[in-house]
Amino acid sequence: MKNTRSIALMLLFMVAILVTTVGCKRDRSASSSELPIAQANTPTLNRTVLLTGLEIPWDLSFTPDGAMLFSEKCRGLSVRLPDGSVRRLFGTTGAAVVAEDFFCQGQSGMHGVAVDPDFNSNRYIYVFMPSRRSKPATNRVVRLTLSKDYTSVDQRTDIVTDIPFKNSFNRWGRSGAHSGGRLRFNPYDGYLYVTTGDNHNGTLPQDLTRLGGKVLRIDRNGAAAPDNGTPPEGDPRIFTYGHRNVQGITFRPDTGQPFSCEHGPGHHDEVTPLRAGGNGGWDPAPEPGVSCPSNYCGYISNNLEGTPTSMTDLGKFLDAMLPSWDNRGDSEGMCPCTFLDGDEWGAWNGRLAVGFLRGARIEILQMDKTGLTTETTRVPGIPSKRIRSLVQGPNGALVVSIDSGEIWRLTTSIKP
Ligand SMILES: [Ca+2]
To answer: How far apart are CA 140 and CA 156, in angstroms?
Structure first.
């Protein structure tokens, strides 16, 4: 009897061990089915459509109190207030202030929008647009003062008047091509960065006396910022040169270093960390002995070897700025970019969001400390559309404009 009880107790003990072990296994199994920390911290995006029915919304910018200024390529500048109402401020007929000199043509029209860092005291806002005030027409950076009630603008001051505009058709396309056009203040130095394009003009990007194919760095009155590093023979407003068509610029959150995002010619687009006085290495001018239609070799070879004109010609410009990333093998119409900054972005905090036109997507680039891209991730779960502007708005949300006429707000699933 005693033996029987001992055997029963032993069996109970063994069952208890077995149950405990299985239980532990079950717990471990549950634990291991959770995502690795980095992956679990990847945000899931929730998309809200803020505006529809727009005509190529090109860029946007927020005032400190949450009003969203946005441009439409052929209409001009409008504002969306936090209550959702929209008012047209500046541009074509129907705007509070009609700009008779403003026009749109080909790729060009009202492009970049920026809000002054001291907006609360000066009410200054800025747009990039082509203007017939110059003959032939040029692209300009125009400063406006926004009324306190957000219904109108006044005190127009054209702070840059001489950014080249492609005024006539050539073998490579219509007038208005390659104007660049993004405007961004760098929060780290307070200066306004202006991106421009090469106008399908072979000599423009490497010509330091003209403003096409450049990144400019200026103050709120249009004067050159100090320490631009421009070579002595050059226009002091030039921060970097040797670019093709820069339509994106942003600043790394931990350092303030500017990065350009540049639309390429067919073989690839480029993201480039910029340095003062740097040469991007784009030179579509024909070399001696080479002939290109309209003297522009941007889509073919500019040399006797017959290799395609490089976005960064290290053979010709040994000290050219090296790209962080290029989508080698294809140009997908790289357009806007912005660094994501904030704990709500989880594993993507500090990474670069890059938008594509033909590529119709947003790519997230992870970089090392030197600015070289080490990993890329396509943003999942959003419609495939031509991405024209990317801006971090109120509460860290990523606000996106798309060519087909909408502005979206993307919020993340992560609570900081
Ligand atoms: Ca380059």
So the answer is: 12
Query: For the CA atoms of 285, 291, 297, 302, what is the dihedral angle to 10 degrees?
Result: -70
Peptide bond preceding 43 in cis form (omega within 30 of 0):
no
User: What is the distance in A from the centroid of ligand 1 to the CA of 295?
Assistant: 20
Q: Is residue 57 a contact partner of residue 51, using CB atoms and an 8 Å limit?
A: yes
pLDDT of residue 31: 35
pLDDT score, position 291: 97
The Å distance, Cα 272 to ligand 1 centre, comes to 7
**C-alpha to C-alpha distance for 73 and 99, rounded to whole angstroms:** 14
Instruction: Name 276's Cβ contacts closer than 8 Å, sequence gap at least 6.
Output: 227, 228, 229, 239, 240
> What sign for the dihedral angle of Cα 199, 204, 208, 214?
positive
Q: Are 343 and 292 in contact (CB under 8 A)?
A: no
Residues ≥6 apart with Cβ < 8 Å to 401:
54, 57, 58, 59, 60, 70, 387, 388, 389, 407, 408
How far does residue 314's CA lie from ligand 1's centre (Å)?
9
pLDDT value, residue 95? 98
Chain CA centroid to CA 240, Å: 17
Residues of the chain with pLDDT under 70: 1-40
Q: In what order do the strands lie in the sheet with 362-367?
A: 334-339, 352-356, 362-367, 373-378
Sort strands 238-241 and 278-279 into parallel, antiparallel or unpaired: parallel
Sheet order of strands, 387-392 included = 45-51, 406-412, 398-402, 387-392
| Beta-bridge partners for 124 | 145
Q: Separation of 178 CA from ligand 1 center, angstroms?
A: 15
Q: What is the pTM of this model?
A: 0.90
Q: How far is the CA of 274 from the centre of ligand 1 (A)?
A: 10
* Helix residue spans in 230-316 (DSSP H): none
311 CA to centre of ligand 1 in angstroms: 5
Q: What is the pLDDT of residue 329?
A: 78
